[in-house]
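Colleagues,

For the teaching module next term, I've prepared a clean inverse folding example: a structure given as tokens, and then the sequence designed for it. I'd like students to try predicting residues themselves before seeing the answer, so please don't circulate the second half yet.
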């Protein structure tokens, strides 16, 4: 997991996560901090193992750590976070030692992690999409009644 550790030590990642934490500190709805990122990583890795997808742990954890890296720019500049995240992640992945092919796979997953059309895909992008949604425990959230997620999108049951 050496390359994954390079991601969270990367100055751009750290800066974006610090800005995001400050921006979301009073947010009553889902936050996008390290707890969320690790939940997504673990859920994605479980699915990968259960379905024998064969994706490496570093690829899954790398994608999970980076999938919301563009959130702060979405809040402050109006750039969709999947697009801002893809742009930020490119430099971080390169600096962290991921190969060109791995970078392409992770960047696609980041860019498409909000795309419903990828929801059934067995590749990294589909796994990340599903893990991101499953990571939210709407049924246990005190802000659930005020949340703008549709009832179909909310996770009212625990699933992996």
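(Answer key — instructors only)
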């Amino acid at each position: 997991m050496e390359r994954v550790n390079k991601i969270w030590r990367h100055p751009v990642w750290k800066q974006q996560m610090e800005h995001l934490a400050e921006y979301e500190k009073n947010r009553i709805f889902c936050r996008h901090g390290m707890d969320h990122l690790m939940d997504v990583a673990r859920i994605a890795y479980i699915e990968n193992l259960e379905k024998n997808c064969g994706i490496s742990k570093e690829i899954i954890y790398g994608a999970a750590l980076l999938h919301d890296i563009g959130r702060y720019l979405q809040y402050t500049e109006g750039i969709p976070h999947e697009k801002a995240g893809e742009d930020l992640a490119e430099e971080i992945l390169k600096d962290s030692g991921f190969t060109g092919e791995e970078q392409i796979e992770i960047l696609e997953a980041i860019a498409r992690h909000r795309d419903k059309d990828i929801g059934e895909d067995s590749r990294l992008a589909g796994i990340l999409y599903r893990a991101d949604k499953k990571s939210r425990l709407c049924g246990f959230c005190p802000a659930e009644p005020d949340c703008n997620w549709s009832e179909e999108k909310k996770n009212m049951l625990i699933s992996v």
